[in-house]
UniProtKB/TrEMBL annotation:
<feature type="domain" description="Bacterial surface antigen (D15)">
    <location>
        <begin position="444"/>
        <end position="750"/>
    </location>
</feature>
<keyword id="KW-0812">Transmembrane</keyword>
<dbReference type="InterPro" id="IPR000184">
    <property type="entry name" value="Bac_surfAg_D15"/>
</dbReference>
<keyword id="KW-0732">Signal</keyword>
<dbReference type="InterPro" id="IPR039910">
    <property type="entry name" value="D15-like"/>
</dbReference>
<keyword id="KW-0998">Cell outer membrane</keyword>
<dbReference type="Pfam" id="PF01103">
    <property type="entry name" value="Omp85"/>
</dbReference>
<protein>
    <submittedName>
        <fullName>BamA/TamA family outer membrane protein</fullName>
    </submittedName>
</protein>
<keyword id="KW-0472">Membrane</keyword>
Amino acid sequence: MKNKLSIYFRYLCASGFAATSLSCSNTKFLKEGQMLYTGAEVKIENDSLSKKERKELKTALEANLTPKPNSTFLGLRPKLYFYNIAKEPKKEKGFNYWLKYKMGEKPVLLGDVDREFNKDIIENYSENKGYFNARATYDTVSKNKKAQVIYTLRPGSRYLISNVKFQKDSSLVNKEIQNLTNKTFLKPNRPFDLDVIKNERERIDNGLKEKGFYYFHPDNIIVQADSTISKNHKVELNVKLKDNTPDLSTQQFSIDKVIVFPTYNIQDVRDGKYHIPMNPDSLSGYAYKDIYVVDPQHKFKPKIFDRALYFKKGDLYNRTNHNLTLNRLISLGVFKFVKNEFITSDSLQHKFDAYYLLTPREIQSLRLEALGRTNSANYAGSELNLNWTHRNFFKGAEQFKAAIYGAFDFQMGGPENAKNLFRAGTSVQLSIPRIVAPFRFNSSSAFVPRTNITLGYEFQNRTEYYTLNNFTGSFGYLWKENARKEHDLKIIDITYVSPAKVTELYKEMAEKSDALERVVTKQLIFGPTYSYTYTNTMLSKPTTIYYKGTLDLAGNITGLVTGANVEKGKEKTIFGVPFSQYAKIENDFRLYHKFTEKTSLATRFIAGLAYPYGNSEHIPFSKQFFSGGSNSVRAFRARTLGPGSFDPRTIQQGYYFDQSGDIKLELNAEYRANLYKFLNVAVFADAGNVWLINEDTDRPGAKFSKDFLSEVAVGAGVGLRLDFSILILRLDLAMPLRVPYYEKNERWTFDKINFGDASWRKDNLILNIAIGYPF
């Protein structure tokens, strides 16, 4: 113990000496008279400000100061050090160039700081925030060739809004502005804030755009501030149209003709403008309802534009329909460029023609992919895909996809008897950009709803065990309410699994386990599935969430009609194969919180339940839940955790570890930090397990009970992520902290941790290699 403490103490001393040396060594590279700029600080002298107001103002002011000092890490400036020690390269390549200009960072000197300019920034920003009498000074503090600039701000009292007036007149545009005043951002007794005033102008502009004022601009609005009315640091605001507002900006415009060019070539752009290739007066031969579709070669059915376009002849212009139309045209998936122009056709009646200039993508494409892949079962391998895509199959923007693939997977870091897996198959999908149904489906979403029809076949060979034929088919709908909410409803989702060959080795194992027997039993699964996804992770907010809920109902109506009841000996079949009957629900909730630009916390909670009944005593193996592995509880091998407190070490030799359950609970938390460009690290903790609904005599302790909390496995570890944009390589090293299949009073393993024991490391340190983030 003393030796360990001595080594630790010497390590700290050495680290401290190295840090001091690195910190001091940067200044020795400075020339005579140069000083390293270490940053700026803003001090605020105003006792009337609250602590919160003082902090917010100080943070905002310091963020606006320039330049920024050299970056630091743990109080050191390693990038500056790399710049200093690297020789000046003769060419823009080589090690010295990389070290000096890629890894390194040029020194920021005191001479680079314009202190008068920063003082003006501080005063101007303060005045924009309502501190009308703000005054700033600065001082420079230097020591050991390092310099810091201290700015002192005396902001005075902050001015508040006393009253807000929206000036009235008899014009049509003013009447519309008056109708928008009830949602104004300018409120009495709120601080004067120039940013809020800018937002108010944009709010009025957005409201007028919805009422046909296409040519209006936020700059047409002026907000006058009068601080002479009150002596109590109050200001009155007067919102009005500028006197020089163009007449065109005050007119409401409506749609005259809607004209679509679906085969427009972007190369026809000249002088930076699109040139309309046809006179609008000669469009009669291209009329479809109220739309003119100029498509002489008839590559597209005109009715797809009737569904996608929200503008019709005579409609008053509004920005919502403008953006909806553009988004829907893009979401058709057949156009790579979508351009929209409005050209005045009747200036007296304030009408314009709406032109849509659409440049198609390549209608057909053939792609060959060679992939490296990993999955949640710790399998890694390669996959070869040949994909053919037709983006306008029936000339209605239908997407037809056909694929042939082959894959070979082997388990990395898993049990020795897991065996390799070979898969080969084919699939086809037809995606129609509308809801194909006996009822009418109307959607005001910016995304085109789709009807998807899929068929697939896969041949699966688990070496030395069995081969399976897997047939799938589905018919359903995919639609998005908006960018955050998505619905996926499969009216019918069919899976048929038939064993082609089962080896004698596997048959011997299956005789001792009903679970193994069910893997190679013919399975027929059909029924509706529905999933709902909500996410706002695309927003630039510090906290975002992701949720996906899935409901799977198999054989329910068929089981009800046929009176199926396997417990009473009334098992029903279709073409000699018993169909599965169950209800399954799964919830996946994730929360992401960003602390800084380089640090964040990601958490996930999974709760799932699958309940067999009627014609089924068990959930089909392919539909059950699994735990453990690179995307789950990482301190346990893939699919070796659970169910419940069942001990997988009791399994007979030769049984690959695929432990499944009907109930799943899992919680994950991961702190992520960026160290340098593509290099990221993580510290994580995982907890979870799976359980069975019914008792299984082959797996004691597997059934869900009131003691389920004591059977939750816990693990923790550290990870390294190499983010190359197109590929994220992830390495996670984890160890178990709580093992559910140990005796109850021995499940927590803190006292068993021994990094010096090679056998302990081999059995308890689990390395997960994967592609992409776990969640």
